[in-house]
Write a structure and sequence with these properties.
Blueprint: E1 12-15, H1 27-45, E2 51-54, E3 60-64, H2 80-83, H3 96-106, E4 110-115, E5 118-127, E6 130-141, E7 151-156, H4 160-167, E8 178-181, E9 185-189, E10 196-200, E11 203-208, E12 213-217, H5 222-227, H6 237-250, H7 254-264, H8 279-292, E13 295-298, H9 300-305, H10 307-315, E14 319-322, H11 325-331, H12 345-355, E15 360-361, H13 368-374, H14 377-382, E16 393-397, E17 412-415, E18 420-424, H15 431-447, H16 454-471
Parallel strand pairs: 10-12, 13-14, 16-18
Antiparallel strand pairs: 1-6, 2-3, 3-7, 4-5, 4-7, 5-6, 8-9, 9-12, 10-11, 15-16, 17-18
Length: 472
């Protein structure tokens, strides 16, 4: 650390009013602040890229090509220009640079700041009028290079490792690919073997052990502004979780949805990352996938309880995505990003049913034996009060849609959409087969109940009692 000295006549000393600095600050943190200021100046002026380089003498230089630093910039004050451009800059208050200079001085790093306005070094000087109080001063001399564009910080005795650590605080130097850009910030690919990183306008503020992505937040909430302390590190998740969630909900890219979908399928075994624990994020990922891929969302119990239906889905080229029960419940009745229904088994069943094509046979093309059986349909219906009014036609088909959940071929069908009872042709081989199937479907048409339901069983029992009463 430099000893107090009397200034030569041709230099001026600017009191930084610093006796002690934050003990936790290391050399790398000081270099980080200088880099942050350089990047802010580049962003605000639209000038050339910041250069961080080491010269032949081993001196590290951090150089921007902006307007040039003046000694007045070392005063402690809110920077109005930066406050008006919160999404473009890293720094917001004029305190970081002073702390950085004090840290470098304390760590015995020689500093030379050059701009067209002057050359600045550091020195310890008694305060004016108080010779017993020694503070850090900026030693201001005439510019050694009056035509210099921008500002050059020359740091002597700083290690390569400290510069590397300082650069690592910035997204700009991380090389992390951007997966999606939203109005709240960027979703980034996390580098393999590294923790996920949370940046605020390009500067690292936190790391996450169990996030799927890294994030660069460019639109700050009030909570985040409050949480960004002078160290700008160790910011808690509560400060940025809302913005992370909003970025994910605003994302529409497959790469993000695919990663979240894989984590959804790991929820049951507990190996998922944290983002899918937010239900609205998990649902949004399903909406993206549904809009861009042929998928069907099922639960673990669906996989065992409805194997035939899931086999149908796979045969139709659908990718089966397993989700927890609460997510499946949240998907019920919602649309994807294109406005189509998110496909669970019930939606797929409707699609599957509508895609089936019957091969209808007109009565004229039936054999005499088949026609004789089919012509008894009104007498059979009369046993239970006649054909229901909502039945507009009774048809015969060569083919019949298999049962969606069991895969077995059904013998008949009440098709509410066309208001038709459809009978499989082979049922006309005997009166007993046709009558049993026909009465079964009449019950469906009358009641609207599904097979296997208790209501349908009760209705079918009642109908059988009617038939028996007429025959006895």
């Amino acid at each position: 650390m430099n000893k107090p000295s009397q200034p030569p006549a041709d230099e001026r000393r600017f009191d930084l009013n610093i006796e002690k600095i934050l003990e936790g600050w290391e050399t790398c943190h000081a270099a980080r602040e200088i880099i942050a200021n350089a990047l802010d100046e580049q962003a605000l002026t639209g000038t050339n890229e910041v250069e961080i380089s080491k010269d032949l003498k081993g001196v590290w230089h951090i150089r921007d090509f902006g307007r040039g630093l003046k000694y007045e910039h070392l005063t402690q004050n809110e920077n109005q220009e930066k406050l008006k451009n919160p999404t473009r800059v890293i720094g917001k208050f004029g305190v970081g640079l002073k702390d950085a200079l004090a840290t470098l001085n304390r760590r015995k790093i020689n500093v030379l700041i050059r701009s067209k306005y002057g050359d600045i070094t550091l020195g310890q000087t008694p305060k004016h009028g108080f010779p017993d109080v020694v503070t850090l001063h900026a030693v201001v001399n005439a510019p050694s290079e009056p035509g210099l564009v921008g500002t050059d910080f020359a740091l002597t005795e700083i290690s390569d490792a400290d510069i590397a650590v300082a650069k690592d605080f910035f997204l700009k130097f991380s090389g992390q690919p951007v997966l999606d850009e939203t109005s709240y910030g960027q979703i980034l690919e996390t580098s393999k073997g590294r923790k996920s990183r949370i940046y605020v306008t390009g500067m690292l503020v936190a790391e996450e052990e169990n996030f799927a992505f890294s994030y660069n937040i460019t639109s700050l909430t009030a909570a985040m502004r409050k949480a960004l302390n002078r160290e700008r590190t160790n910011v808690g998740r509560t400060a940025y979780s809302d913005r992370v969630k909003q970025m994910l909900l605003a994302s529409t890219v497959d790469a993000v949805a695919e990663t979240l979908a894989r984590d959804l399928q790991r929820l049951e075994e507990g190996t998922n990352r944290d983002e899918v624990k937010w239900t609205d994020v998990a649902v949004h990922a399903c909406q993206i996938l549904n809009a861009s891929k042929k998928v069907v969302f099922v639960t673990a119990s669906d996989l065992t309880g409805f194997r035939s239906a899931i086999d149908h889905a796979r045969e139709d080229g659908l990718r089966v995505v397993t989700v927890p029960e609460n997510i499946k419940h949240s998907l019920k009745g919602i649309a994807d990003l294109k406005g189509d229904p998110v496909r669970d088994l019930s939606v797929y069943q409707t699609e599957w049913s509508e895609s089936f094509e019957f091969k209808f046979v007109s009565p004229e093309k039936l054999t005499k034996a088949e026609r004789k059986v089919f012509d008894l349909r009104d007498k059979i219906a009369a046993l239970v009060g006649g054909v229901p009014r909502n039945v507009q036609s009774i048809k015969v088909s060569e083919t019949m849609r298999p049962d969606f959940f069991t895969g077995s071929t059904t013998q008949g069908l009440w098709d509410e959409a066309s208001r038709s009872i459809i009978i499989l042709r082979k049922q006309l081989g005997s009166l007993e087969d046709f009558a049993g199937t026909f009465l079964h479907e009449i019950t469906h048409a009358k009641t609207g109940y599904d097979d296997v339901s208790q209501e349908f069983e009760n209705a079918l029992t009642e109908m059988l009692g009617q038939v028996a009463a007429l025959r006895l």
